[in-house]
Design goal:
Blueprint (H helix, E strand, L loop, with lengths): L5 H8 L7 E7 L9 H18 L5 H15 L2 H5 L4 E7 L2 E7 L6 E5 L8 H4 L5 E6 L4 E7 L2 E4 L9 H4 L5 H9 L20 H24 L6 E5 L4 H7 L10 E2 L7 H30 L5 E2 L2 H9 L3 E7 L5 E5 L4 E4 L8 E2 H11 L3 E5 L10 E5 L2
Helix pairs in contact: 2-3, 8-9, 11-12
Length: 386
């Protein structure tokens, strides 16, 4: 399993208090010599988990049953050949989930009353996650990217290429379609084609529309049309046609021009980031301005206790979080009070993690930013819906 969405997150949170919850995070690599290190790291982390479980009131049989699904993967060569930037493994009695992650994670092995979700917070943030659709008539690639990572996303119900969409058409017309391209101008670039009913250009245009509608339906189904920025990468005369048919709400009007077929995933991610970065900056600056305007009206706050319960109750519209920052504490849901325990390893919650997860579950926006760029220099800041 690779996708962690709201439904998955809700299911994981419901696992609380059903027994010891084990959360294991392993740095992984897709290719190269480092790819072999994943199994070694996992084996060492399992030993760490076993030592923690030995201090609990569990029999050896219970521990073996709990950890068996992970132990079976330690030496699974095929499993380690298909990794991304990080691996999350979450276990509880009768429950085992693993996720190949598009983000880098630090080694961690946590045993507690609920799953440890903090390393996954960047997946819930809109601050740097984007997609690239590398599209030609022959190939389709969907990439999930951050400024520092890229991984392929398996498209749901996508056609292989345009030939699959047109396979029931007249073979002669289909052959003509594949052998022609848009005319090049004096500078060598290809411009969009003008089409009229009844001519061959119009038929080519309609064939491309049919193909792109099928691709776009797959993109929307795969990404669940959450509006996360998507950049089209392809030859210039194709983009206006895709723009005509798309229903994906996050498609940017800027696109990466040129055939993507011979371009590596990492190079596409690197070339697209400058197109996306201003969008994220604009989102954040707009929300920061709104935050400052609403301070003092009861619709914005940097008080952690207020933010925790506003997140729980679904009242947070936008949440700013200081990256790589924890704030330990305990939450009393009966009295609606929070006690911060910054020096306590026994604290039941990371308050910032709790606020982020609850905000995501209630479809709020999350910006994870550098601590020195936080509004008011706080650990967290929120804009409320009401």
């Amino acid at each position: 399993m690779d996708t962690i969405d709201r439904d998955t997150l809700s299911m994981l949170l419901e696992t609380q208090d059903d027994g010891p919850c084990v959360s294991i995070f392993v740095p992984t690599h897709e290719v190269g010599p480092e790819a072999k290190q994943g199994s070694i790291r996992l084996k060492n982390l399992l030993s760490k988990v076993e030592r923690k479980l030995d201090t609990m009131n569990l029999s050896a049989k219970q521990v073996d049953k709990l950890l068996r699904p992970v132990r079976e993967l330690v030496d699974d060569t095929l499993f380690w050949k298909h990794q991304r930037n990080g691996l999350a493994m979450l276990l509880a009695p009768g429950t085992f989930h693993h996720f190949r992650l598009p983000i880098e994670v630090q080694e961690a092995a946590i045993v507690g009353h609920r799953f440890y979700m903090k390393p996954l917070l960047r997946l819930f943030s809109l601050s740097d996650l984007f997609y690239v659709l590398a599209l030609s008539q022959q190939h389709i690639r969907l990439l999930q990217c951050t400024p520092h990572s890229v991984s392929r996303v398996e498209l749901v119900d996508a056609p292989e290429n345009i030939a699959e969409v047109l396979q029931y058409d007249d073979p002669q017309k289909q052959g003509q379609f594949h052998t022609k391209t848009a005319p090049a101008g004096p500078d060598g670039t290809r411009s969009a084609i003008s089409y009229g009913h009844g001519d061959e250009n119009y038929e080519r245009h309609e064939n491309l529309r049919r193909y792109f509608r099928a691709v776009d339906a797959s993109v929307c189904k795969t990404l669940k049309n959450h509006g996360i920025p998507l950049v089209f990468a392809g030859v210039d005369y194709l983009f206006p046609i895709y723009l005509e048919v798309t229903k994906y709400t996050g498609l940017l009007e800027n696109f990466l021009e040129g055939s993507p077929e011979a371009v590596r995933d990492k190079d596409l991610q690197r070339q697209v980031w400058p197109l996306v970065k201003p969008v994220f900056q604009q989102y954040r600056e707009k929300d920061e301005s709104r935050y400052h305007q609403l301070l003092g009206t009861g619709q914005a706050s940097s008080n952690v206790e207020d933010i925790v319960f506003a997140a729980r109750d679904g009242r947070i519209d936008t949440l700013f979080l200081a990256a790589e920052t924890s704030l330990a504490g305990t939450i009393d849901h009966q009295t609606n009070t929070v006690e911060q325990n910054p020096d306590s390893e026994a604290a039941a919650e990371d308050l910032l993690e709790y606020a982020a997860v609850q905000t995501y579950l209630h479809k709020g926006t999350i910006h994870t930013v550098a601590p020195d760029e936080m509004p008011d220099g706080s650990h967290a800041a929120a804009i409320y819906r009401y």
